[in-house]
Design brief:
The protein is an all-alpha fold. It is built from 17 helices and two strands. A two-stranded antiparallel sheet has the order 1-2. Strand 1 and strand 2 form a beta hairpin.
């Protein structure tokens, strides 16, 4: 088929721009919100993050099966962008609402709103991801679409993370529930508009029909070796991102402090968590732009291994950076390098899922694109669940203090808790990246094998047409 229009690629990018604006705030700021703004204990907040995201991950395959069997004039997956977008924004606002209730009531509110938000997120994000499998049949075009998707995703993440703290301060204060609520109202409104634009600007060009039962689809999925390996590697990749990201707000508050400035060509600017994360998102965009030429030269599997090996080295070195003016610049440089590498990884993983979907169609004679892509979302959420909960539980285990009264009285964070924060930004992510690299070593879909699969599928589809 002919190459897709630029407008379609931009429209597809708007979808993940919207999702990522929410997802990055959830991943990087929600643990801090629950423990330091909403008022939950670290242990309860950790259990909440784990339970709700496990439910969310389990619901992904269900949504994949439903979307695979949806048939409308707009296609299988695209209609959900229109149907679910309003609920997506409303649930995000409810999630950052702090009701005037006792501790037990607030805990129930947190569970209900978080589970509701993650369910709606699944309802829109799984079909959105699956669209990649039906917008083109060209493996290189899939990587291009995926790169547009991730470029826009990181652009949206940069906007939301860079503006989050200034927005909360403008809307009532960074340390107040009011500030967090109204900041999310602004973000949610923007996310709604972008999902509508995604629906309007895209189209499903391929028609796939699942001719087997749901049980057969799941049986084929469980027999799919490349799927198992890729989901394990992707889970580790998302665990890497979540552990580092969820630690940053704590790291800046207790390791770096709130009154640190950097000087650049005579200009002084604040060095705060939002800047650190925002610079990372811009660097991710550089990585996304580099993905197509790099993976085209080395192949997807080799690129995956090389990137993770580099992440291991950089993460270990981050531990040894001192808290000095020069050290702060080094932290920023390392954040840029690490983020460029994770930027390469993001579209690469989505493109590899599209290859796994093609492999399943040829090997098992089942068009289960939604189910395949829902597994990627499942891996993302399992990684986020484990990573977010682990950060909170480790901090609690090492005696981290969240009580504002104690901190106001001048009680310092325990040395062990500060060491834990440093490990969460260095050695622990390094171990996760190493595991991801080892898993994908056994991934069988090399460039040659993917080309063979595409050639066979083109013959089959030509006969069916």
């Amino acid at each position: 088929m002919a190459k897709s229009k630029l407008s379609e690629k931009i429209g597809y990018g708007f979808g993940d721009m919207s999702s990522s604006m929410f997802w990055k705030i959830f991943s990087y700021y929600l643990p801090f919100f629950y423990s330091n703004i909403f008022g939950l204990s670290l242990v309860d907040a950790g259990v909440l993050v784990l339970v709700t995201r496990i439910w969310d991950a389990v619901s992904d395959p269900m949504m994949g099966v439903i979307s695979d069997r949806t048939n409308t004039k707009w296609g299988k997956y695209r209609p959900y962008l229109l149907w679910v977008a309003p609920f997506f924004s409303i649930c995000g606002i409810l999630l950052f609402t702090t009701p005037d209730l006792n501790y037990g009531g607030k805990l129930i509110w947190a569970y209900v709103t978080y589970i509701l938000m993650m369910t709606v997120y699944t309802g829109i994000n799984v079909p959105y991801g699956a669209m990649l499998g039906v917008m083109t049949d060209d493996t290189n075009e899939k990587t291009v679409f995926s790169s547009f998707r991730m470029f826009f995703a990181y652009g949206g993440s940069f906007i939301s993370l860079f503006l989050w703290e200034p927005l909360t301060n403008l809307m009532g204060g960074y340390n107040t529930p009011k500030g967090w609520f109204w900041a999310m109202v602004v973000i949610a409104a923007a996310c709604f508009v972008m999902f509508i634009l995604c629906f309007v600007m895209t189209k499903e060009h391929l028609k796939t029909v699942s001719t087997v039962s749901v049980g057969s689809d799941f049986k084929a999925l469980l027999s799919n070796k490349p799927w198992w390996l890729l989901i394990g590697a992707a889970l580790c990749f998302n665990l890497f991102n979540t552990v580092r990201g969820a630690t940053v707000a704590y790291f800046f508050q207790d390791i770096i402090g709130s009154n640190v400035n950097l000087v650049f060509f005579g200009l002084m600017f604040a060095f705060y968590a939002g800047l650190f994360l925002g610079v990372g998102e811009v660097s991710n965009m550089v990585g996304v732009a580099s993905c197509v030429p790099i993976s085209g030269r080395f192949g997807k599997k080799t690129t995956f291994i090389l990137v993770n090996g580099s992440l291991v080295v950089l993460s270990i070195l981050f531990y040894f950076i001192p808290c000095t003016p020069t050290g702060y610049w080094m932290m920023l440089i390392f954040q840029i390098l690490i983020s460029i590498l994770t930027g390469i990884m993001s579209p690469l993983v989505w493109s590899m899922y599209a290859d796994v979907s093609d492999y399943a169609e040829l090997e098992f004679k089942t068009a289960s694109t939604g189910l395949i892509f829902s597994s990627s979302s499942m891996a993302q959420k399992f990684g986020g669940a484990i990573g977010g909960a682990a950060v909170l539980w480790l901090l609690d285990g090492f005696g981290y203090i969240t009580d504002a009264t104690q901190l106001a009285q001048g009680i310092a964070q325990p040395a062990d808790a500060l060491t834990c924060l440093r490990w969460l930004m260095s050695f622990i992510p390094a171990c996760v990246a190493l595991l991801s690299m080892c898993v994908v070593w056994f991934y069988p879909l090399t460039t040659e094998r993917v080309n063979e699969i595409n050639a066979e599928l083109k013959k089959i589809r030509a006969i069916e047409d």
